Amino acid sequence: MLSLKNVSRTFNGGLAGFQNISLQSKKGEVIGLLGTSGCGKSTLLRVISGLDPDYSGAVEIDQEKIKAVHEKVGIIFQEPRLMPWLNVIDNIGFGVKQKTDKLSEAKAYIDLVGLAGSEKLYPKDLSGGMAQRVSIARALITNPEVLLLDEPFSALDAFTKMQLQDLLLNIWNQYRSSIFLVTHDIDEALYLCDRIFILRGQPGEVYKELTVDVQKPRTRGDEELAKMKGQILELLDLSKSEKGNQNEHNKVASK
Amino acid sequence: MASKNTVLPQKSQWKSKDKIRIPKKLKLTLVGSIVPLVLLVAWQVMSVIGVFESHLLPAPTQVLERIGSLVADGSLWGHIGVTLYRIFIGFGIGVACAVIAGSVVGYLKTAELLVDPLIQGFRSIPSLAWVPLFILWMGIGEPSKITLIAVGVFFPVYLNIVSGIQGVDRKLIEVGKIYNFTPLQMVKRIILPASLPSFFTGVRSGLGLGWMFVVAAELMGASKGIGYLLVVGQNTYSPDLVLASIVMIAIFGKLTDSVLKGFEVRALHWQDNFGKQN
């Protein structure tokens, strides 16, 4: 499956991005990347997706090194990124190459994400949650083996967020693709992920790897999860992120 | 109190009448024609009581009469036809060149570096300055007129296409990259539709310039066309003919723009704009 070997990608003279990240995903595993803003989570996802080819190290899918966008990878962005000139069903079928069964396939995914009846709506008429459902369907229609999610629910209200998290679990149950979920929401990571990597520092590095050994579907108020949340908060060390401060000093000094 | 009570029911009656009898579009047209109508009436009244002298500014009715006589002797359609023919050909050539040049320059960085400074330089030349050269090269027949119109139309369309393409959201482009789109697919499925709004802006302002230049071209030497009527009006001291031509230009300018606007509304119905809130 997907493996990263000593992957680094930094900008701003080595002060932003991430470095030396190695990890390996198993088939059907949900991996969470958790960290405060600016630690390179989204950059890491862009590197895995192939959108950002200027990295060092090796990203491999099924032992095949990727330097460009791989067809086995699907990505769901923070914003829905729908084409405003296409209606729901055409947006879902946007990435399908063969024209013949585009519509019927798109229909199937419309039902899956619970948007039956909204096929003909345009993005301007959709709520944030509906738009994100469309973008989930659009990413799934190409049957990706690795699904990348870049803070997919962070712009949604709390209730829509929970609905879509459950939708994602449903989908994962059906397709068992590997999922990489970048998030800054600890509850979300604990609710969805099998393993959580905590990134810290600027540039970000893997600070800790946690395994969540609770059977899915989990309950949101689970005691074990609550304990882990405390642990994660401690690991993130939000009160005094020394490294970040140090870097800021460096920045000032270099100016 | 008593007067209030009598007024209120009347008001509500009016409201319900409006809703039932006048469709929305018609209502908008009516609202839009209030100011012009008032001005027209004022003009007519001023002419009748002699404030405006008729050899300088004839009354609206006189202008209408003049248009009527042009219609009656059948010459009006010939003039309008020639002008429309010139503007369509010139506009078509201008838009076509602008679409090709604008797409290439907008999409390819090297093309922009090579060609754009030159085009920007040419843009700062008033198109009318080309007239002597065009006449020298092509004579005073149709080619020089049409070329002038095409040059005028080219620049707004070109500029808008380039900025439209360069302004396409990087986030949408990335979606295409995720699906491994070829450059051609990228242009066809993302860049073109996304830059359609600014294309229409360019085309509509191009058409406006087209009307300007068709009149300019006809003023300089033509034996037919609305601009020619203007010259005749000037030489025969008939301000009614001049005004009649101006009214014709206004009417056909507005009509052709409405056609483009119709296409625009249909093609861009997906836009979520302040102007479209209703």
Automatic annotation (TrEMBL), chain A:
Keywords, A to Z? Answer: ATP-binding, Nucleotide-binding, Transport
- SMART domains for this protein: AAA (SM00382)
| Gene3D superfamilies linked | P-loop containing nucleotide triphosphate hydrolases
Q: CDD domains per the record?
A: ABC_NrtD_SsuB_transporters
Stretches assigned to the ABC transporter domain: 2-226
Offer an example of a GO molecular function term for this protein. ATP binding
What superkingdom heads the lineage? Bacteria
PANTHER family, alphabetically?
A: ALIPHATIC SULFONATES IMPORT ATP-BINDING PROTEIN SSUB 2, TAURINE IMPORT ATP-BINDING PROTEIN-RELATED
What is the protein's given name? Answer: ABC transporter ATP-binding protein
TrEMBL record, chain B:
Chief location of this protein within or outside the cell: membrane
Topology of the protein relative to the lipid bilayer: Multi-pass membrane protein
Query: Could you tell me which Gene3D superfamilies the record lists for this protein?
Result: MetI-like (1.10.3720.10)
Keywords, alphabetical: Cell membrane, Membrane, Transmembrane, Transmembrane helix, Transport
The reply to whether Thylakoid figures as a keyword in the UniProt entry is no
Where, by residue number, does the polypeptide cross the bilayer?
Answer: 28-52, 84-108, 120-140, 146-169, 237-256
The cellular location(s) given in this protein's UniProt record come to:
Cell membrane
Pfam families per the record? BPD_transp_1 (PF00528)
- GO biological process: one example: alkanesulfonate transmembrane transport
Provide GO CC annotations from the record. Answer: plasma membrane
* Entry keyword annotation includes Transport: yes
Domain ABC transmembrane type-1 per the UniProt entry, residue ranges: 76-260
Q: InterPro entries from the xrefs? A: MetI-like, MetI-like_sf
Q: Which PANTHER family match?
A: ABC TRANSPORTER PERMEASE PROTEIN, ALKANE SULFONATE ABC TRANSPORTER-RELATED, MEMBRANE SUBUNIT
What family does this belong to?
Belongs to the binding-protein-dependent transport system permease family.
- This chain's protein is named ABC transporter permease
What is the source species? Planococcus salinus
